[in-house]
Glycosyl transferase
Amino acid sequence: MRFVWAVAAFVLAAVMIGAGIAQRTVFQGPKTETAAISVSEEAPYLMIDGDVLNMVPGAQTLRAQGDGEIFAAYGRSADMKAWLADTTYNEVSLNKSGAIVSTTIEPAVAEDDAAEADAVEGDASASEPEASAAAHSPVGSDLWLDEFQQEDLLIAPLQLPEDMSVLVASDGIEAAPSKVTLSWPIASATPLAGPLIVAGGILMAIGVFLYILGIRHARRSRGPRRKGLPLAVTEPIDLAVEGSKKGVISATPTRRSVTSGRRAFAVIPAVAVSALLFAGCSADSWPQMAGSATPTPTATVIVPEGQQAPAVTEAQAERIIARIASTAADADATLDPALAATRLTGAVLAERTTNYTLRGAIADYKAPAAIPMKPLEIVLPQAYDDWPRSVMAVVNNEADKTASIMLMTQADAWEPYKLTYLSSLEAATQMPDLAPAYVGATQVPPDSSFLVMPPDQLAAAYADIINNGEASKFYGQFEAEGDQFRASVAADRDQRLAEFNTTAASTGSLSFESMPGSHPPLALATLESGAIVAINMNEVDTVQPTNADAVIKLDSNPTVKTLAGAEQSATGFTTTFSDQLFFYVPGQGSSEKIRLLGYGSEILDAKVIS
C-alpha cells in the first residue's frame, strides 16, 4: 500500500510542479507591449503626446535609433508646443479610434512675416515657412524636466502623465530619427505558480519517503514463503574445530547494508530539486498578502479655480539655479558682461557689469559674491502658461550659513531663465505662508489695488522713509522693528557726513537721496492674499563745492574716479548705489504692516556733475 501512496504522491507532485512551471513559461504570454512610431514626412523634431505615452497603463520605455547622437527631452506639452511654434515638426497622437497617427505641423507665421512675404512674393525662398523659422537648439532648454543625448537612445522607465510629452530630434536641423518605439510592461503575475511548485516539491519528498518505507517493509517481511524440498539432516557443529575454522556464515547481508546506500541516493536528489525549483520563483510568482499602505494625512492646499500650471517644478528650479550660478561664476572669472547677460538681467546684471569695470581697473577690487545653488529651501513658481514667467526661490548658502532670496524671469519659450533680483535674507526673517511648488502662485499686477500698497508705489514710499525717517507720511505703513537695511543706511550716512564735514564743510557739501530705480517691480501672491514684492531702489550721493575756487578731488577714492573717468571736478560728482529689496506686502484689510524680507546693495555708477 505504501508503494501505491508513493506513486500517487509522485504523480500529483509532477502535475503540480508542471502546472506551476507552465504558468511561468508557456501560459504566461508576452511581458511587454510595443508600438512603433512612424511618420509620413520627415521633420527636424518628433513630438510624442502624453495620450500616446499613456495608451497602455504602466511605465513607458522609449527607444530611438538613427545615425549619430540622438536628443530626447520631456516636459509639459503646452511648453513643448510653444517651443516648437516657429519650426516644422511631427506630432504623434491618438485619433478618435485610439490608433496612433502622425501629423506634420508647420510653423506659425506672424502677421509681420506674412506681410513681408507678400512684399517679396517673387522670391520663392520667402514663401517657404521654413525660411522664416528660427533655428533653436533644444539642448539645455529650461523648459525640459529632463533631457538625454546618446547614440541608440534608450530611456527607461518613464512615468509621464498625459499633460507631458516627449521630444525626439537629431541636431534640430536634420530629420529626427525614423526608428522610434514605445513599450509598456504587461502585468504577468502568476500568484499560484510559486505555491504549486513548492507544494509539488513537498509532495515529491513525501512520495520518496513513502517509497523508502515500502522498501523497508518489504525487506522486513521478505514476502510469503513457499514449501521447499526436504533438507538434509542437520549435523551438530564440531566444537573441536580450531577457532579459525568455526563459526556461522550468514547467507544474506544485514538490513543496514541493504537500505542505507539507496536512502541517501533517493532523498538527496529530491531535496536538491525542490530547492532549485523554489529558488527559481520570483516575487510575482506568489500571492501578495500585504495590505495597502495607509496614506499619511498632509495639509490640503486648494488650487483656485482656473489657475494655470506652475512654470517649473522643484527639480527644474534647482537645475536652472545651478546653470545661472555656473554661468555667473564663469563671467565673474573672465569679467565678461556679455556672458553674464545670458543668465542675468535687470538690477543683478547692472551691478555685476559695474563690478567688472572696477575689477578691470583696480587690481584688488573685490569680486561679487557667488550665487548660491543649494540647498533649495523654498520654490514659488508663477502659475502661468504664457510668457514672461517668474520663479522665486530661497537658497541656503552652506559656506557662510546665510540665505538668499532670488527672483528669476523667462522672457519667452526660447530664452533661458535669467536672475533678475537677488538679496540676502535678514537673520530673523519670517517668510509668509506660500503655496507649494506644485501649485504655484499668481503674479500680482504692478498697480494691484488688492494689496495695502500697489507694487509700483512701493519703491517711492520706502525711498521717502529712507530720506525723511519718521517725518515720512509712509512711515507708519512699514514695519520698523527688524529693518536692518534702514538702520544701516542711516548709520552709514551719518558716519560719512561727519567725516566729510571735518575736512570740507567750509568748501563743499555732501547730500543723500533715495529714489525708485529703473527696473520694474515683480510680485508673486502669498496664501494670505498678500504678495512678496521685489523692487529696485537707487541711492544717490552728491558732493559739490560751495566755493567758486574749490574743486572736488578723488585722490583717495579710486572707485568713483574709475567710474566717473575724472580725478577732480569743479562741479562735483554723483555716486549711485543700486538696492535690491524684497518686501512682504499684506492684502487689503490686513492689520499687518509692510515688512522687509531681504536686501542687497552695490555701487552702480559715478558721474561728473555737468
In short: The chain is about 30% helix and 25% strand. Confidence is low (pLDDT under 50) at residues 124-134, 241-272. Residues 15 and 200 are 8 Å apart (CA to CA).
